[in-house]
Amino acid sequence: MIASTGKDSAITSAYMAQIGPSHPALKEPVMFTFELDGERVVSADFAPGMAHRGVEWAGTRRNAIQTLYLAERICGICGITHSVSYARAIEQIAGIEVPARAHYIRSIVGELERIHSHLLWAGVAAHELGFDSLFFLTWKVRERVMDVLEYLCGNRVHYGIMQIGGANRDITPDQYPTVLEALDYFEQHFGQLAKLFLEDDSIRIRCRDCGVLTKQEALELCAVGPTARASGVAKDVRQDHPYAAYADVEVKAITPDQFTGEVHGDVFDRIIVRLYEVKQSIDLTRIFIENMPPAGPILAEEKMPKLLALIRKAEGEAIGRHEAPRGEVLHYLKLNKNVQPEVWKVRAPSYNNYMPWIPMLEGEQIADIPIIVASIDPCISCCDRVAFVRGDRKDIVTKEDLHRMSVAKQRKIQHG
Amino acid sequence: MGNVLLILFGTLAVAAFGIITGLVFLGVDRILVARMQARIGPPWQQPFFDFFKLMSKENVIPRNSIPWLFNLAPLLALASSIVLLLYLPIGSFPALLAAHGDLILIVYLLIVPALAMVVGGFASSSPYATIGAQREMVTMISYELPLATIAVAYAWKLGQAGVAHPFALSSITANPIWGLVGPVGLAGAVLLLLVLIVVTPGELSRIPFDTPEAETELAGGLLVEYSGRNFALFYLALGVKSIVMAALVVALFFPWNVSDFIALPTVAARIADLAFWLLKIEVVIFFAASLIRISLARLRINHVVSLYWKYLGAVGFLALALLMIDGMIA
After folding, report:
1. Predicted local distance difference test score (pLDDT) of residue B28
2. What is the CATH number of the domain that holds A69?
């Protein structure tokens, strides 16, 4: 989409240009408005909300188990992330104890998903830089992760393996060799990809000191996941609040200074962090496979009607968290003696990583816009769950409005 | 009168030849690139399919564009690319207009297709196209210097060797530079070849120098508003331009023909020379466009400028200096 308003001014030669909502650099719809001076970005603004599908609304009108599958469909890449967070919230409220083996299944699939997501991102990043050979190579490796996920879960994209109180499918010992073999394959290709991404000059000159987010800004704007870690904020839900099988292993948040000795907070650091997280995930998956608890139940409650009855009795609220490939995902849930969740609120990691776009983009060149936008690995559909549409008019909601609405909503939640 | 008719029909023949081989080589380029990226790639006729598809599509002219300029630009780009081909030898056929222009004219004419794209970009009045057009102009200015050093170096060398009409392409092809120079000059000539190889992707707006089009940044840049017939003409122009750039490299550096070495009957010699010429063209396109394209990321416009002006300009002058030193030694 192209639109511009020629802002004629004697003082500045700046002009406005829009990128989005539909643009080859954007894999999902979001609209950027840039004030440009020649090739330089003077100021940037963005407007999300183009991929709204009313998932939360729909979720509170289905029973809690159906909503689990709906949660998985919030995002095409991090399905496990949303279903695990959602399930964890319900389990906390209903007091469901997840079997040990199911914890491991969740973590294994979660780590494979991270490998998949980071490889997908790396490919997209290479494409944004105009380096299509690297894009195809990365996605060739990614194809294998999808094969493994299909082998384990039966699906390539929305895995459908999670269930409230455990997992739907077991990972049996005869499946281990295939997974381990795939891990070896990733390890081999990791070396090749790391060499191409980290040692190739044409990537370095484009990404070094481009789109810088300082540690201070990362903290102030509540950045999460690799975006925050690349700026030197060592936070990772798996490290800070271990859950599932992560409690049994030592997970250390990956920051670029562990590999280069310094933190730039630029696009290149984000590449470093994501690549080494792939390595970390390969190692973690191997540890999980090797230390799988002996065969046993994988579901707290196998009969779905009984599980629903359990949920129907539950009352209370909880927050489920998960370290998604893009950062911390957070599901707030309130149950009120009903099969449907009373309130469901999802805070996806990209939501936190949107704001850092502004300091990253300002002062950079047009050529850097695509890679900077892509560098936070934005998941627009994860975030676009709120839109205010009245007739064909779409309102902009101010901070005051939001505060007022938030107070009203809190009151409604507390007093019914 | 006969001469006029020859030029008229010759031009038509060269135009058809240039367009068809241009499209074929675009297809070959796509297959080779795909294979090197571990893909299968399209069939070799894909550029033809693309062309016919584009011709059947609606030709959208933006409301705030300048229509006559917007429509003229693609015609100008294609026509000027074909005109360039008229000045370059094809196989053992001498250039159709060899008597009417020389290397300097070719260097000048090379600006025209790029300039047509700039004009089209500005005429479409889209901010993306405007940014693209500005970048194209900057790129054009940048690679002009290294290109000029090549022309100067050649003419100087030929002039020094006592060849008549040193700027004429016929004298250049008749006296390959490799035979005129000593070891130092040989290094200079290799550097000149390198310069021309690096200028080629810039001239063709190919990665890493595709900043004016930059799909992921400008969504096609100066071509963003073009569709249907106009876009198809630009596509043809790209094909012809690829042939032109490769033919220039061949004419300057690899002018040999099969018939120079093997005695063949006239018709067979012409065919063999043409086939050998096409092979040389493909080799040049492979190294100058395909191979560079798959092994690099897109450069920022400031990188493009510094690469062409500073580094390639310096290499060009170094080559010139080496040729001069060679002349002094000899």
Report:
1. 92
2. 1.10.645.10
